[in-house]
């Protein structure tokens, strides 16, 4: 989980201590569709997994993405 948080924080130019898995992608983090694509791209490159569009549409919190990564890894 620490590695995931570090990657997300780096992508968002945020401090790791300010990132938690319960944060909402739009409400708390303020990601727009381009920001989400950038984050997914970074995670794809790092973890070597693919994200299908149906899964991405269901992502509401960082935990949703984290769980997806854990289940694919």
CATH architecture: Orthogonal Bundle
CATH class: Mainly Alpha
Number of helices: 4
CATH topology: Non-ribosomal Peptide Synthetase Peptidyl Carrier Protein, Chain A
Shape: globular
Determine the CATH superfamily.
Answer: ACP-like
User: What does the radius of gyration come to?
Assistant: 11 Å
| Unreliable residue stretches | none
The structural class is mainly alpha
DSSP summary, beta strand count: 0
Alpha carbon gap, first and last residue? 13 Å
Query: What percent strand?
Result: under 5%
- SSE string: HHHH
What is the arithmetic mean of pLDDT? 94
Largest beta-sheet details: none
Query: What proportion of the residues is helical, as a percent range?
Result: 55-70%
Count of the separate structural domains: 1
Description:
- The two termini are 13 Å apart.
- By secondary structure, the protein is mostly helical.
- The chain has helices at 2-12, 33-47, 53-58, 62-72.
- Helix content is 59%, strand content 0%.
- The chain is globular, with a radius of gyration of 11 Å.
- The mean pLDDT is 94.
- The chain is built from four helices and no strands.
- It has one domain: ACP-like (Non-ribosomal Peptide Synthetase Peptidyl Carrier Protein, Chain A, Orthogonal Bundle).
